[in-house]
Amino acid sequence: MHGFEGMRREVEDVVELMQHIQSRLPITEAARTSVLSKSWLHAWHTIPILRFCVRSEQNGNGMKLVDVDHTLIRYLRDNIPIERFELLIDIENQESASHAEKWIGPVVTTKASCLKELSLSLFLYGAPFTLPDEILSSGENLSKIDVSSPLRHHSVIWMTTTTPTPVINCVSLRELQLDGVCIGEEALHDILSSCSRLEKIVLIHSCKGFKTIKVKNLPCLYELTISSSSQDVHNTALEISHVPNLGVFTCDLPFLFKAPAPHSISLGSSVTELTLGGYGMVTGNACLKMIESGFPFLESLTLDDMRSWKSESFHFTCASIKNLTLRDCQSMLTDIQVHAPKLNFFWFGGAALPTLLFPVSSTLFKQIFSLSLSLPVDVYFFLKMREALALSCKCDIYIITYNYTTTMLPFDDIDMDDLRTRLLLFPPAMNVQHLWFGTVDDECLWERSLFFDAFFEICHPKYVYAKPDSYFRQNNHFCRLMLREVLEKNTTPYWPHYLEHVRIRRDRYQKWETLTNSHTSLLASSVYMIFNLKWR
To answer: Which member of 238, 253, 464, 485 has the greatest number of CB atoms within 10 A?
Structure first.
């Protein structure tokens, strides 16, 4: 006990140490430390990190406007330093908007201000909100500005300058993150040209109506993200140059290389993580050749929208690539070949599974397949899937099926005898860790489907996540399948013979329960279930 008391006194001798502990706790838990002693109370009352969560009653418990008022009045009156200010607030009316504006300005401009980080998450319900000019004109100590509008489709946050000759004093700025913030084109360019120490820039739906997005002469810039919808950046030119240390580049601008406006993009050879999204961004193997030649140290490539891909093949060679992600691939893409000796992770998402070949990769650890199936699936689909599963140590599979007809099953063409004959030399793969399965607009067709009969011929997944149908919430085919073929044994099942036991739970926070007849009513209902399957 004496040693514990001595340690407690040593901690309480250093205010900064107590405040560091408090800053790493949830707000309610940090506040409770103030009852430990007067030292902890003083540390809490003068902590330089202020985090406020002001939510409306329908959105959960939070602080009241008056609580924030009292705290800020005391800090400003007593000149207590504020190094970090975080505010999450529901702005439902002019009163809450005025309060938020009233808080932000003084925190930045107070004489004792040493504000380094400003983080604002503003939930606006219908009304626009304008950030104070002081953020840009008086934030000489700011190293991080992070402003987001989670409800960006309902209203907007304006960040602009109201004076003809704006003064940008954020000379210490390292991070600028704007999500759903409408900033003026001149204001943004003034910031980027004045803040030469910027290391991270994130602009998400924040460049509406721009003629040009200019990112130039930033020698310290390491991470750059630019993302907007087609309506926001129609005919917008992108100019990037003199960013010699850029390592992470994400660009999601639809029709970027087809827009009438000229583009001048020079990223340098230091890029290691590249993400390209937006319809029309990458259209064929010529674009891949440009990526191969332009980024000799590339380790991660994500092509987020492959709907405009114009070729049946995807051939990519890269000696340094470790992670490759292809999303929204259309059914016309039937052949993927990746020559990458260091490839460790591969993610494919699309409407059909192509033939996969990794000729020189012996390091592939994990694959993820995310498939949206709306076409009839035959034996050939399962044979290709079985071949693909053999390429890596672990696999996760997401499958969503779309049934838009009541006359034809999407899996009518599965010949189970033919499939079993073809798989005689290939036992079910045991490396599938997780299978997520869901249906859209499926009223009753899955009750007669052979999909899982065929699927369990090629693999034995460890966990199955079964969701109710998106439209017909009363239908959860996998739950009914487990009820009929495992518990009730109404048919002559084939694959259940290989199940040693089944455990279930409603969500990841519950304990696993062994599947028994006591769960019959549960499986017959429209619930989300997780199954843990142990195969013989």
So the answer is: 253
Query: Would you list the DSSP string of 55-96?
Result: --GGG-----HHHHHHHHHHHHHTT---SEEEEEEEE-SHHH
Length of the chain as a residue count: 536
Sorted by sequence, the CB contacts under 8 Å of residue 339 that are 6+ apart come out as 315, 316, 317, 318, 358, 359, 360, 361
CA distance readout (Å), 518 to 71, 487, 524, 528, 531: 54, 10, 12, 17, 15
Q: Which of 47, 32, 30, 38 is nearest to 12 (CA)?
A: 38
Q: Name the residue range of residue 423's domain.
A: 365-536
Residue 446 tokens read as 């899955």
Separation CA 71–CA 107 (nearest Å)? 12
16 Cβ contact partners less than 8 Å away, ≥ 6 residues apart: none
Q: Which of 533, 381, 369 is nearest to 465 (CA)?
A: 533
Q: Is residue 373 part of a domain?
A: yes
Q: Give CA–CA dist 169/136, Å, rounded.
A: 6
Q: With respect to residue 469, please indicate whether it lies within any of the assigned structural domains.
A: yes
Which residue(s) pair with 129 in the sheet? 157
Q: 208 in the Ramachandran plot: left (φ > 0), alpha (ψ -120 to 50) or beta?
A: beta
- Give Cα separations from 364 to 214, 338, 359 (angstroms): 38, 11, 11
User: In terms of Cα–Cα distance, which of 505, 491, 489, 496 is closest to 535?
Assistant: 496
Helix (H, G, I), strand (E, B) or coil at 7: helix
Whether residue 294 has pLDDT greater than 90? no
Categorize the per-residue pLDDT at 4 as very low, low, confident or very high, splitting at 50, 70 and 90: very low
Q: How many CB atoms lie within 10 A of CB 521?
A: 9
Identify whether 193 is part of a domain: no
Please report the pLDDT score of residue 234 as a whole number: 64
Instruction: Judge whether 4 lies within some domain.
Output: no
Nearest to 135 by CA among 81, 176, 180: 176
Q: In which band, very low, low, confident or very high, does the pLDDT at 229 lie, cut at 50, 70 and 90?
A: confident
User: Total structural domains in the chain?
Assistant: 1
For residue 257, count other CB atoms closer than 10 A to its CB.
15
Which of 83-92, 259-268, 373-382 has the highest average model confidence (pLDDT)? 83-92
Do residues 135 and 104 lie in contact, with contact meaning Cβ atoms separated by under 8 Å? Answer: yes
2, pLDDT greater than 70: no
Residue type, 459: C
Angle of the 2-12 helix axis to the 15-23 helix axis, nearest 10:
90
